[in-house]
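I'm curious: can you give me some protein's one-letter sequence along with its backbone structure tokens because I've never seen that pairing?
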Amino acid sequence: MTIRALVWGENIHERENAEVAKLYPDGMHSTIAAALREGGEIEAETATLQEPEHGLTEARLERTDVLLWWGHRAHGDVDDAIVERVQARVWEGMGLIVLHSGHFSKIFKRLMGTPCSLRWREAGERERLWVINPSHPIAAGLGEHIEIPMTEMYGEPFTVPEPAETVFVSWYEGGEVFRSGLTFQRGAGRIFYFSPGHETYPIYHQGDVQIVLRNAVRWAHNPAPRWRDIGEAPNVPTKEAPEALEERGPKLHAEGEAGFR
């Protein structure tokens, strides 16, 4: 089964910063998409902030199984209507992988319902990303840890809800630790947050990081029926009961009343 992935990139640093452009001449989104295509199982396209509707039209999201999101400098420039559109697709069952500074994106904060803030330091320090859940599908094919020679430090506290699973925990040269690979579920959609990926370092060129991204897309893909395929909304009146029932008390809602769905 082919998985249809869409890699969304802010595409600002690559165009305005010479160091980033040298590492990612076609943009980080293109490098990530190329890595996902290896093996042929994943069909990866790209979209950027600068495109009409940020490249996230209803038709494009409709045919997307898993959306990957990288943003940093222009979180506020993402249109709220597009955020709501993506959120609705996640509820329906589209997977979402949030990368690095995407932790502070509108869509991630909307789905988490928390500030999603953290501590950070840009000092080019070493990161050792420990695989603490080696049996998880996202960790398949990895050793006991991933070594990232130079990176931006992300530190606790990371103000997200308690995750469903913690796959990776990172240690940094300066001594901090960070929960760097977390899974969540919102509606029928699977969500994975993966922290490595600072734009001034060649992190997305690392083979073991690319393995994580491919594994995450496979894990986040949910081939089960979408919620909307089951019904327009799960909150519907039910007259029939599994057991014999004697109705009692006053009724607040009139038969067929609008607004109570």
About this structure: Helices lie at 13-16, 18-23, 28-37, 58-62, 80-92, 106-112, 207-220, 227-230. The first strand starts at residue 3 and ends at 9. The domain at 3-116+181-229 is CATH 3.40.50.880 (Rossmann fold).
